[in-house]
Specification:
It is a single chain. By secondary structure, this protein is α+β, with helices and mostly antiparallel strands. The protein folds into 2 domains: 139 residues, no CATH class; 46 residues. The protein contains 6 helices and 5 strands; from the N terminus they run H-H-H-H-H-H-E-E-E-E-E. The protein has a 5-stranded antiparallel β-sheet with strand order 4-3-2-1-5, with no helix packed on it. Helix 1 runs parallel beside helix 6. It starts with a helix and ends in a 7-residue tail after the last strand. 18% of the residues are buried.
Length: 200
């Protein structure tokens, strides 16, 4: 069995796993801001949340790509270094002498997939926790970057820090304020980028 065969069988479950990771990341992030994001999300928002997050920044996209690419070669690496104690301990390897060649390949493929799942879980949870905590602290201290202008249909424009958006709502903090506002997307005429910032 080749690694591509294993991945082909697990592809539907892999996307389901990414959807769960996207939900987990968003829930952790918005929970720290006092928002239950699932109440404001549609099924479509939930389904595309991992794609939106992965493509939100080049560093995140490159990191995820490197994670997947490195784990394609992990089974071969484990097979070649299975006798090293550090590798055995790190990946909890078991003796494979009694396994056939095909069973051995499948065994190392499964380890690679499990390892990737754990790393992705840690990555999504970690970024959700960190970004939520940092954002909540900046709101409390009034240290946000107000780099967007929301132009409403029937209200005056507002300079804001855009915390996030989905298909229905826009989450933001208005300049000079320290509380979060939630506005329906339909009430916003357009969103104007005032300046680029690395701390967004």
């Amino acid at each position: 069995m080749k690694i591509s065969d294993d991945l082909e069988k697990l592809l539907p479950f892999g996307y389901l796993f990414l959807i769960l990771m996207g939900m987990l990341k968003d829930s952790i992030y918005y929970y720290q801001l006092g928002i239950n994001i699932l109440k404001f999300s549609t099924i479509t928002d939930i389904l595309i949340s991992p794609i939106v997050y992965i493509t939100s920044h080049p560093i995140i996209l490159i990191t995820i790509f490197l994670l997947f690419a490195s784990h394609l070669y992990l089974p071969k690496f484990l097979s070649k270094n299975k006798d090293k104690k550090s590798i055995q301990k790190t990946f909890d390897l078991k003796p494979d002498e009694e396994l056939t060649i095909e069973e051995r390949k499948s065994y190392y493929n499964q380890i690679a997939i499990k390892t990737l799942a754990v790393i992705l879980l840690s990555f999504f949870m970690g970024t959700g926790l960190a970004s939520g905590y940092i954002t909540s602290q900046r709101i409390t201290k009034g240290a946000l970057d107000y780099n967007y202008k929301l132009n409403f249909n029937d209200e005056k424009p507002q300079e804001v820090n855009l915390l996030g958006t989905n298909s229905l709502y826009c989450f933001y903090v208005e300049k000079g304020q320290r509380h979060i506002k939630i506005a329906p997307i339909g009430s916003i005429k357009n969103i104007e980028l005032l300046y680029a910032t690395s701390s967004k």
